[in-house]
Amino acid sequence: MAGTSFMATSGGGGMGTSLSSQLPRLTQETELQKMLSDERMRSEQHKTNYQQLKSEHSRLQDEYMQLQNEVRTTIEESRIVQEKYKTMYDQTRQELAERMAEIEDLKTKVISPQRLEILKMQVIEDLEVTYREKYQKQEQEIDEHRTSQNKLRYELSFVKSEYEHEKLEHQRILEEMKLQCETEVSNLRKERDSTINRVQTECSQDSQKVRVLQRENAQLHLKLKGLLSELEEIRSEREKLGLDSDSVSRIQSKQLSENVGVIKALEAERESLKKQSESLLREISQSSDEHNKLTSRIHDLEKENMVLSNRADEVSHKSKVDLTNLKMEMLKQRGELERERDRLSNLVEDLQTQIEINEHKIRSQAQTLEEKEREAVRRVQAAREEEFHKMATIESEKMDLEAKLQEVERQKIDQESYRHADQQKVEDRVRAISNEREAAEKELLVYKTKIQHFENLQDQIERERSENSELKSKVHKLESELSGYYSNEQETTDQNIKLRNQVELLKEELNLTQEQLVKIQNNHDRILSHTRGALIEERNQLHERLKELEGRYSHVQSKLSKAAVIYKKYKTRSHKTTESLRDNIQILEAKNEELDLEKQALKNCVPHEVHNRLKKQWKDLYRRHQEFRAILLPNVKHVAIGDKSFAVATLPQDTHNLSGEFERQHQEDLRLLKTRLDQLDNNQRQQLEELHDIAHSTLLSDRDLDDSREKVDDEKLSMS
Q1: Going by C-beta distance under 8 Å and a sequence separation of 6 or more, which residues neighbour residue 297?
Q2: Model confidence band, residue 204 (pLDDT cutoffs 50, 70, 90)
Q3: Residue 153 and residue 604: Cα distance in Å, rounded?
Q4: Between these two residues, 236 and 19, which has the higher pLDDT value?
Q5: Beta 637-641 vs 644-648: how paired, if at all?
Q6: Which intervals carry biased composition (Basic and acidic residues) (predicted)?
C-alpha cells in the first residue's frame, strides 16, 4: 500500500515535468504563428503598395508621353511660325529690291526739281505711313501683351491666394484629424487599461477558486488513495478466491472426465457441491459487479471533475489568449495607423516641397519675365530714341538740302531771267559782245562750279539714300529682335500655361489626398466600432461562460457529495461482503482438506509453475513496454485498476535485474534511443530558446510570460 501511494504521488510530478518541458514549445509556436501572420500582412501591404506604385508609374509615363506630344506640337508650331516669318522676310526683301529697281529707273530718268520734291515727299510719306502703321501695330501688340501679362499676374496672384487658403484649410483639417486620432487613441488606451484591470481581477478570483479546487482535489486524491488501497486488498482476496474456485472447478471437471462411473454414484454430492459453488460464484460475481460499478462511477466522477477543471483552465487560457491577441491586433492597428500617418505626412511634406519649388520657379520666372520686359522696353526705347535722333538729323539735313535746292532754283530762275534779258539785249549789245563774252566765260565758270556743287549735292542725296537703306536694315534687325521678344513672350505664356496646368494638377492631387484621408478616417472609425463591438460581445460571452462554469462547479460538488454518500454505503456493503466471504473461506478451508487428494490429480493437466512462469513473462513484457514509454515520456507510467488506468512514476532502472542476452540488447537499444532523444531534445531546446529570446524581445512582456506560466502550472495540476 505504501508503494502504490508513492507511485500515485510521483505520477503527478512526472506529468508536470513533461508539461513544463512542452510549455515553451507551445508558447513559441503561438509566437511564431503570430509572426508569420504579421509577415503575411506585411507582404500583402507590400503587394498593394507595389500595385499602387505601378499604376502611378504608368500614369506618369502617360503624362510624359502627353508632354512629349505637346512639345512636338509646340516645336511644329514654332517651325510654322518661323517659316511664315521667313516668307514675310523674303517678301519684304523682294519688295525692297523692286523699290530699289524703281528708284534706279527713276535715277536714270531726268528728274526735275519739282518732281524730285514730289517723289521725296511721296517716299517720305510712304515710309512714314508704313513705319507709323508698324509702330502702331507694335504698340498695340505691346499693349495686348501687357494686358495679357497683367491678367496672368492677376491670375497667378489669385491662384497663389487660393493655394494659400487651401493650404491653411488642409493644415487645419490635418490638425483636427490629429486631435481626433489622439483622443481616440487615448480613449482606447483607457478602455484597454480598464479591461486589463478587470481581467486581472477576474484572473485573480479565478486563481483563488482554482487553488480552493486544487486543495479539495488533493483531499479527494488522498481519499481515493485510501479507497484504492482498500480496493487492492479486496482485489487480492478476490484473486485468491478466484484461484480457489478455478482449482475447484478444474478438479470437478477432471473428476467428471476420469470417473464417469463414479459420477453416477456421487451425483447427489456433486449437485450439492455445484449448488454451493454456484451460490458462491453468484455472490462473488455480484460483489465484483458492484465493485466494478462503484469503481466505474468513481472514475466517471473523476473524469467529469478533470473535464470540468480542464474546461475551466481552457476557458481562462482562451480568455487570456484572446486578450493577448486583442492586444497584438491593437498594436498592429496602431502601427499601421502610425505608418499611414507617417506616409501621409511624408506625402504632404513632399507636396509642400514641390509647391515651394514651383512657387520659387514661378517667382524666378516672373522675375526673369520682368527683367526681360524691362530689357525689351529699354531696347525699344533706345531704338526709338536712336530712330528719333536719326530722323531728326535726317530731317535737319533734309531741311538744309531743301534750302540749298531752293537757293539753287532761285539762282536758276535768276539765270533764266538774266538769259531772257540778255537775249533781248543781245541785239542792242552786239557791240559789247566781246566784253560780255569774257563776263559770260566767267559766269560759265561760276555755273560749272555750281553744277559741280549740284552734282555733289546729288552724291550726298545718294549717300543719304544708302544711309536710309542701312537704317531700314537696322529697322529690320530691330523687327527681328522684336519677333524674338515676341517668341520669348510666347514661350513665357506657354510656361505660364504649363505652370497653371501644374497648379491644377497639384490641386487635384490635394483633393485626392483629402479624399484618401477621409476614407482612411472612415475605415479607422469602422475598425474601432467593430473592435468595440467584438470586445463587448467577448465580455458578455466570458460572463456567460463563467456563470456556466460556476453552475457546473456546483453540480460537480453535488455529485461529489453524492459520490461520498455512495462510497459510505459501498464501504458498509464491502464490510458485510468481507464478513460473508470470511465465513465462506472458513467453510472452504474445511473443504480444502477434503480436496487435497483431488489437487494431486489436477497437477497433471495445468501445473501451477507453468501458470506462474507465463505470468512472469507477461509482467516482463509489460515492464519493457513501460520502460520504452518512459523514455518517450520520462518518469510516467500507467497502472490498470479494473477497466481504468492511472499515471504513476516508474522506479529507477537499476532496481530491475534483467537476465539474458535479449534483455541486454533491449537495454542497449533503449539506452541508444534515450541518448538520441536527449540530443534531439537539447537541440530543439536551444533553437526554441533562441527563437523565444527573439520573440520575447519583440512581442511578449514579462507579465504575459508569468500569466502563461501560471496557466501551465494550473494545467499541470489539473492534468495530475
Answers
A1: 563, 566
A2: low
A3: 131
A4: 236
A5: antiparallel
A6: 36-47
Residue type at 186?
Answer: S
Q: What phi and psi, each to the nearest 5 degrees, are found at residue 648?
A: -135, 165
Grid cell in block for residue 22: 512542452
Establish if 641 belongs to a structural domain: no
Measured CA to CA, the distance from residue 269 to residue 259 in angstroms comes to: 14
Domain assignment present for residue 668? The answer is yes
Q: Concatenated DSSP letters for 82-142?
A: HHHHHHHHHHHHHHHHHHHHHHHHHHHS---HHHHHHHHHHHHHHHHHHHHHHHHHHHHHH
DSSP state of 650: P
- Cell (9 digits) for 77: 508650331
Domain count for the chain: 1
Residues 6+ away with beta carbon under 8 Å from 645: 638, 639
What pLDDT was estimated at residue 8? 38
pLDDT at 6: 37
CA distance readout (Å), 327 to 592, 691, 712: 77, 21, 21
Q: Is the pLDDT of residue 347 over 80?
A: no
Answer for the pair 295, 231: CB distance below 8 angstroms, yes or no. Answer: yes
Contacts of 500 (CB under 8 A, 6+ apart): 155, 159
How many other CB atoms sit within 10 Å of the CB of residue 552?
A: 15
Radius of gyration of the chain (CA): 63
What rounded mean pLDDT belongs to the chain? 71
295-324 residues labelled b (16+ CB within 10 A) or e (exposed):
bebbbebbeebeebbeebbebbbebbebbb
* 22 within domain boundaries: yes
Provide the residue range defining the domain that includes 677.
1-108+658-720
CA distance 269 to 263: 9
Indicate whether 65 belongs to any domain: yes
- Cα–Cα distance between 276 and 583 in angstroms, integer? 13
Is residue 170 a contact partner of residue 349, using CB atoms and an 8 Å limit?
no
Q: Which residues contact 586 (CB under 8 A, 6 or more apart)?
A: none
Contacts of 30 (CB under 8 A, 6+ apart): 321
pLDDT-derived band at 471, boundaries 50, 70, 90: confident
Using CA atoms, how far apart are residues 78 and 72, in angstroms rounded to an integer? 10
Could you tell me which residue, 11 or 460, shows the higher pLDDT? 460
Beta strands in 533-658 (DSSP E): 637-641, 644-648
pLDDT of 72 strictly over 50: yes
Q: What SS3 state is found at 395?
A: helix
Pick 622 or 704 by higher pLDDT: 622
- Kindly report, residue by residue over 128-186, the tens digit of the pLDDT: 777 778 778 878 888 887 787 778 777 877 877 787 888 788 788 878 877 887 887 78
602 neighbors 251 (Cβ within 8 angstroms): yes
Residue range 238-248, pLDDT digits in tens: 677 667 666 76
Spatial separation of the C-alpha atoms in residues 587 and 585, rounded to whole Å: 5
266 pLDDT above the threshold of 70: no
Neighbours of 376 (CB within 10 A): 19
Burial 274-291 (b: 16+ CB within 10 A, else e): eeeeeebeeebeebbeeb
Residue 363: alpha-carbon gap to chain centroid: 39
pLDDT class for 73, splitting at 50, 70, 90? confident
Question: In this structure, which long-range contacts are made by residues 67-74, counting pairs with CB atoms below 8 Å and at least 24 apart in sequence?
Answer: 74/494
Best-predicted range by mean pLDDT (40-44, 108-112, 192-196, 202-206)? 40-44
522: three-class secondary structure by DSSP:
helix
Which residues lie below 8 Å from residue 522, measured CB to CB, with a gap of 6+?
Answer: none
pTM exceeds 0.85 for this model: no
> Quick one: pLDDT at residue 432?
65
In angstroms, the CA 549 to CA 202 distance is 14
C-alpha cell at 468: 536710309
